[in-house]
Specification:
Rossmann fold; alpha/beta; binds S-adenosyl-L-homocysteine; six-stranded mixed beta sheet; Archaeosine Trna-guanine Transglycosylase, Chain: A, domain 4
Length: 401
């Protein structure tokens, strides 16, 4: 058993149960731990702090499994954590069969993502610690969920920072089909787990999708007609389908990826929504200006762009991009229109995002209310001792008459 001895004063975050040990906090390593091996983390005065997985290549030099010296980090420990994570998601399956069943640090399994799509699971191993338990994790996941197969999408660039190679392929059981069909709040979606973003679907937007579905239904009740909506950065049509399910009259969706739009079209067909859906392959920044110049108006606009800021170095540029789309999105709204606007950049926090959107509102010279706020769903819980886990935020704005 190797020991990681911290510099004096660097024990504070671990005493608050923050799970990361930065390379800069380590004074010395006693022993020769392998990548992923469990080490004992000690304060400079020798006090026990945590059991952690060692990651020599990463600036996150170790990620904690447990702060209790009595714990033993073995197969049974990992199995228990997996089963607890899966059990915590059980209530969600009443609404959907697309659920994140393991969310890394929040589930005490740092770096492990597991998404369930019907009978299949998709994993992402993003840290050396969980990587070392890969075969066991594949086996336990099959047993605990009754899944037919586990497909591994450990191909995120973040793996390189952990010194792990990029890998995608079957981990256990059977190969999943090319499109797995899932049903969420009454809407069918096809998920391609091999090439899709993340593990194939933006599971984290479930609550926002349900809200737009309800908003569209309410619009019809109040106005006696369905809404005309614009969904920007539509990907495979998540929000578009939710709006159509809510009986919108017309949904125009924009994305720059032909592959994503092909899946979106197929998803519309799956639900018999094709007649009310229009798909545009175009850059959103250009498209919003073109629609404005053409005098187009919508009852509702959704802006759910990719992560504009990949780190805090890119926040200024990202802020300009967020402001641009929000301003041009607002300009397309009818009086009484609604804007759903999101950011999934962890480096842009809730306060900053609100300020950026407020800047767009000021420039639009319109009177705007914020009537709702969103984050990721309950299967992406925020571990309160690790605020870095927060990334997705959204606002529901209403343009006053
Ligand atoms: N809203 C989607 C997820 C968005 S992912 C959902 O709920 O499922 C981001 C999407 O933006 C991707 O599909 C990507 O192809 C698209 N994209 C990225 N930059 C773009 C741009 N400048 N113009 C149009 N689409 C863009």
């Amino acid at each position: 058993m190797a020991d990681l001895i911290l510099k004096a004063g660097k024990e504070k975050s671990l005493l608050r149960r923050h799970p990361w040990v930065y390379d800069t906090a380590v004074q010395r390593v006693v022993g020769k731990p392998q990548p992923g091996e469990t080490v004992r983390v000690l304060a400079n005065n020798g006090r026990f702090l945590a059991w952690a997985a060692f990651s020599p290549a990463s600036t996150l030099r170790a990620r904690c499994w447990s702060y209790d010296e009595k714990d033993v980090i073995d197969d049974a420990f990992i199995e228990r954590r997996l089963r607890e994570a899966i059990a915590a998601r059980a209530p969600l399956f009443a609404r959907t069969n697309a659920v994140r069943v393991v969310f890394g640090e929040a589930d005490g399994l740092p770096g492990l993502i597991v998404d369930q799509y019907g009978d299949w699971l998709v994993t992402q191993f993003q840290a050396a610690g969980v990587e070392a338990w890969r075969p066991l994790i594949g086996r336990v996941l099959m047993e605990a969920t009754g899944a037919r197969g586990v497909f591994d999408r450990s191909d995120a660039a973040t793996r390189q920072r952990e010194g792990l190679e990029i890998r995608a392929g079957l981990l256990a059981g059977e190969e999943p089909p090319q499109a797995i069909e899932v049903v969420e709040d009454g809407v069918k979606y096809g998920v391609d787990v091999r090439v899709g973003h993340k593990t194939g679907f933006y599971i984290d937007q479930r609550e926002s999708r349900l809200t737009v579905q309800r908003v569209a239904e309410e619009f019809r009740r109040v106005h006696g007609r369905g809404m005309r909506a614009l969904n920007c950065f539509c990907y495979t049509g998540g929000f578009s389908l939710a709006l159509l399910k809510g009986s919108a009259d017309e949904v125009v969706s924009v994305d720059s990826s032909e592959e994503a739009l092909a899946m979106a079209r197929a998803n519309a067909e799956r639900n018999d929504f094709s007649g009310r859906a229009e798909w545009i392959c175009e850059d959103v920044f250009t498209c919003l200006r073109r629609l404005r110049d053409a005098g187009e108006h919508f009852d509702l606009v959704i802006l759910d762009p990719p992560k504009f800021a990949s780190s805090h170095y890119h926040v200024d540029r990202a802020a300009r991009a967020y402001k641009d789309i929000n301003l041009n999105g607002l300009k397309l709204l009818e009086p009484g229109g609604q804007l759903f606007t999101f950011s999934c950049s962890g480096a842009v926090d809730v306060d900053l995002f609100q300020k950026i959107v407020a800047g767009a509102v000021i420039d639009s010279r319109r009177n705007v209310w914020a009537v709702g706020r969103f984050g990721a769903g309950a299967d992406h819980p925020l571990l309160m001792t690790c605020p870095e886990g927060e990334y997705l935020k959204g606002m529901h704005l209403a343009v006053r008459p």
